[in-house]
Amino acid sequence: MLQISYFAWVRERMGVAEEVIALPAGAATVGDLIAWLAARDERGARAFAEPQRIRAALGGAMVGAGASIGDAREIALFPPVTGG
Amino acid sequence: MLQISYFAWVRERMGVAEEVIALPAGAATVGDLIAWLAARDERGARAFAEPQRIRAALGGAMVGAGASIGDAREIALFPPVTGG
Amino acid sequence: MIRVAVQPAAIDVAGALAAHDAGGHGASASFIGRVRGDDGLTELFLDHHPVLTAGGLEELATQAAARWKLGALTLIHRIGAMAPGDTIVLVLASSPHRAEALAACEYLIDRLKTDVMLWKRESFADGRVSWVEQREGDHARAGRWM
Amino acid sequence: MIRVAVQPAAIDVAGALAAHDAGGHGASASFIGRVRGDDGLTELFLDHHPVLTAGGLEELATQAAARWKLGALTLIHRIGAMAPGDTIVLVLASSPHRAEALAACEYLIDRLKTDVMLWKRESFADGRVSWVEQREGDHARAGRWM
């Protein structure tokens, strides 16, 4: 099972702060997962309409869309950061 | 008459903070005045042994050794600054 | 001495400064970022990650301490809802030498903008609410340190 | 609001900060320089010119205010005899934008080292007394702003 947490406007568009899913078959990379979420329902379509604007952290480390999800239990999906 | 004020180690070597002199004949520029002070006595020789290390302000403005003293009433002679 | 905090409570600048300065450092540089009330802004909300935000700040502080000889480093970032005038972030960097204190302070505030998991949402008097977009200039500034 | 002071009295950092911040600025950068007790230093004495030192600080502040969009600028330099740990100089620069506040602060401290009529004399525990020599690095840093 994979826990996905969402932040900022990704969370708002998804309507939930986190969810736990069974990693879908064929979703090997972070990019695959984002595409699957975008195709899953209307909320996902809104949140992930522009995948190039999505950043990801896998097990606490920032990763690119090509990163393999492997056995990770947690992934965070969010927009570019705007702190400071 | 010209009032000369000295600062930092120039003042210490001259033994006075300021003095008033009649501008000596032939001392047209700041550099001329410094050379005259260096030749005048032992104190001046010590203070102005290295004229390239002396800075000057004439009537409140920083000037180079070639600046004409003209009708100025005040000149300040001092080492490179070390504030901040 | 490195001190890093992520907190919903108001940042006590004077208290942080006093704690930071206890060591008596030759040169101290600081940066304070505050909420600006431009365009009728009424609230700034800062979203964060419960674990990774603090980890990101600690990582930045560690990098700065490795890059410059620092006597003390304080990095405090507020999260949650803030009003105009509130302090969002406080950076304090001290060193025996001024160039290192100034550079570390600038490095930390630049990298904070691009490397730490924080997201700003602005609410305005006319009812508009919008998430702040990352600016190209922030990446250009942060990139100077690579 | 520009505030410049040359004073023999101790610099009240917290008070200066509070006065400076009264306007509520988006970004505030600061620099504090303190006397270091290195090599057994017991006293730092700062010589100054009664008129030109203050004039030089005012000129620097005016140049910074012309160069960057600043909400407030505070420049306080102590003169006379100081002990290790005492604050020599305080620079506060605020602006709506952080890059301007940081740049103005760094500009002021760099130019202070080369452009204002101030001279440091150090006294040490072993009896040595010497005037500080201007460092080549100070000129290199100040020259970046030309």
3D structure, described in words:
The complex is a heterotetramer, with 2 copies of chain A (84 residues) and 2 copies of chain C (146 residues). Chain A has 84 residues and is of the alpha+beta class. Chain A has helices at 8-14, 30-40, 42-47; strands at 2-6, 18-21, 55-58, 61-63, 74-78. Chain A has one domain (2-78): Roll (Ubiquitin-like (UB roll)), CATH 3.10.20.30. A 5-stranded mixed sheet of chain A has the order 2-1-5-3-4. In chain A, β3 (55-58) and β4 form a beta hairpin. The N and C termini of chain A lie far apart (34 Å). With 146 residues, chain C is an alpha+beta fold. Chain C has one domain (2-143): Aldehyde Oxidoreductase, domain 3, CATH 3.90.1170. Chain C contains 4 helices and 8 strands, in the order βαββαβββαββα. Chain C has helices at residues 13-21, 52-67, 98-115, 136-143, and strands at 2-7, 27-34, 41-48, 72-78, 80-82, 87-95, 118-124, 129-131. The radius of gyration of chain C is 15 Å and the shape is globular. The chains are: A alpha+beta (84), C alpha+beta (146).
Q: Can you identify the CATH class of chain A? A: Alpha Beta
Roughly what is the average pLDDT of chain A, rounded to an integer? 95
Structural class of the secondary structure composition of chain C? alpha+beta
Largest sheet of chain C: 4 strands, mixed
Question: Concise description?
Answer:
Chain A is of the alpha+beta class.
Keywords, separated by commas or semicolons:
heterotetramer, A: 84 residues, alpha+beta, Ubiquitin-like (UB roll), 3 helices, 5 strands, 29% helix, globular, C: 146 residues, Aldehyde Oxidoreductase, domain 3, four-stranded mixed β-sheet, four-stranded antiparallel β-sheet, 4 helices, 35% helix, 35% strand
SSE layout:
The complex is a heterotetramer, with two copies of chain A (84 residues) and two copies of chain C (146 residues).
Chain A: E1 2-6, H1 8-14, E2 18-21, H2 30-40, H3 42-47, E3 55-58, E4 61-63, E5 74-78
Parallel strand pairs in A: 1-5
Antiparallel strand pairs in A: 1-2, 3-4, 3-5
Chain C: E1 2-7, H1 13-21, E2 27-34, E3 41-48, H2 52-67, E4 72-78, E5 80-82, E6 87-95, H3 98-115, E7 118-124, E8 129-131, H4 136-143
Parallel strand pairs in C: 1-4
Antiparallel strand pairs in C: 2-6, 3-5, 3-7, 4-6, 7-8
Helix pairs in contact in C: 2-3, 3-4
